[in-house]
Amino acid sequence: MSLDIQGHRGARGLLPENTIPGFLHALELGVTTLEMDVVISKDGQVVLSHEPWFSHHICTKPDGSPVTEEEEKSLNLYQLTYTEIQQFDCGLRGNARFPNQKSMSVHKPTLNQVIEAAEGYVQETGRPEVAYNIETKSQPARDNIFHPPPDTFAQLLIDVITEQGIKERATLQSFDVRTLQVAHEVAPDLQLALLVESHEERNMQDFLDHLGFIPSIYSPYYRLVDQSVVDMAHDKGMQIIPWTINTLDEMQALKDLGVDGIITDYPDIGIQLLDK
């Protein structure tokens, strides 16, 4: 099985995150999967965004002034219609963490728009079909404040990927086991990935016991991965796809351990693994 190279938030190291230009550039570079984050707008649109608000790190208000840290959570996407969301820019300021990122004026797209753009690019260029790894950005404390409850959230996402005809190429991923549990019940054929940030308080088996079933993919922070973690995941019938790896040496080390894929901000570096 070939290594799955996933462009994190599109190509965050190169172009604004979770934007159509970023995803198209990742496709141009040759990724096999587009990784992205989704939230829900006031009018029930599935919108690409890492936070359920406008980040003060990258976003600009309609009047041209930067979003401040003090006000960002008041700019709650779940309380704004998609028409209102489109008035904000989240690319022109660039991203201080990624100095090589090209700045450009872009707004947050809907999942429908991203899929249509990506599928159109695939058809136009004749490149292989692309997969989609879509994270639900939710947590219990934010239910009905920054996003709908998990059953509604998961169903809205599933409806989009089903209507777009990409369900068999899609993965729903989350740190929030609740959306995975809902999806496991209502769409048992959908591939699911459990995101894990730390093994300090729970090991792999604890996480799986909490989830209640074996997902298709175990997706830990890359520094948690050693040979025993890879072997355990494979023994349980899971793929292991760590996040987020941005240097070629670290990517190669993980490939040598036998991971099934990598998630990277720099797909231009990640695709070099396909030639080795």
- Termini separation: 14 Å
CATH architecture: Alpha-Beta Barrel
**Biggest sheet: strands, sense, closure?**
9 strands, mixed
**String of helices and strands:** EHEEHHEHEHEHEHEHEH
Radius of gyration: 18 Å
- The fraction of residues assigned to DSSP E strands is 15-25%
Task: Describe this protein with a few key phrases.
single chain, nine-stranded mixed β-sheet, 276 residues, 9 helices, TIM Barrel, 9 strands, alpha/beta
Give your account of this protein's structure:
By secondary structure, the protein is of the alpha/beta class. It has one domain (4-52, 109-275): TIM Barrel (Alpha-Beta Barrel), CATH 3.20.20. The protein is 30% helix and 15% strand. It is built from nine helices and nine strands. It has helices spanning 20-29, 82-85, 111-125, 150-163, 177-186, 204-211, 227-235, 248-257, 267-270; strands at residues 4-7, 33-40, 46-48, 131-136, 170-174, 191-196, 217-220, 239-240, 261-264. Strands 1, 2, 3, 4, 5, 6, 7, 8 and 9 form a nine-stranded mixed β-sheet that branches. It is globular, with a radius of gyration of 18 Å. The relative contact order is 0.15. The model has no long low-confidence stretch (mean pLDDT 97).
